[in-house]
Amino acid sequence: MAGLIKPLNSVYDQFRRLPGLGNKSALRLAYHIIDMPEEDVRRLAETLLQAKRNIRFCRECFNLTDSDECEICRDEKRDHSMICVVEQPQDAMAMERSRGYTGVYHVLHGCLSPLDGIGPEELRIKELLSRLGSGDVKEVILATNSNVEGEATAAYLAQLLKHQPVVVSRIARGLPMGGDLEYADEVTLAKALENRTRITG
């Protein structure tokens, strides 16, 4: 950025690479790092390096873990006959916060996006099919995002799993709790109608 001394500009450039950070936020963080005591900066850098070195993919579901298997896959109280397929580890965390799901997960690490060069081979789809080979899985819940890529991924997986001896379901989409109809977009309203439930005879 024009006007920044080179070392500060380097910090700014690194923050700018992070998703969800605009130029102003990246600049604010860069100044904040420079204002921090050196010991705090060293601790932050060491924490990031340790996390990068110690975090790996669960050998079963490909969620993030610091051991061979994640806590969810190791938990015998979870329903291992039900697999919820999500795009990213943070999606599994969001499902966990709902406290309404007791099965296990499978993390694809992306979604189908031909324009970005992401096809089935770039996702953990072969590993999902391998998990179904044991015969223990009864249901696969497709919980990819409700956007063009997420819907395409769910449709592809549904077609792929059609001949598997499992129930394939898709999470419902619609209006969020507390949402006003006037602020909802057409797709959300259409999905809310599509996924309506009967409340009387």
Automatic annotation (TrEMBL):
The keyword Metal-binding applies. Coiled coil: none annotated. PANTHER family: RECOMBINATION PROTEIN RECR. May play a role in DNA repair. It seems to be involved in an RecBC-independent recombinational process of DNA repair. It may act with RecF and RecO. InterPro entries: DNA_Rcmb_RecR, Rcmb_RecR, Rcmb_RecR_Znf, TOPRIM_dom, TOPRIM_RecR. It holds the Pfam family RecR_ZnF. One of its GO terms (molecular function) is zinc ion binding. A zinc finger (C4-type) spans 58-73. This is Recombination protein RecR. Keywords: DNA damage, DNA recombination, DNA repair, Metal-binding, Zinc, Zinc-finger. One of its GO terms (biological process) is DNA repair. Belongs to the RecR family. CDD domains: TOPRIM_recR (cd01025).
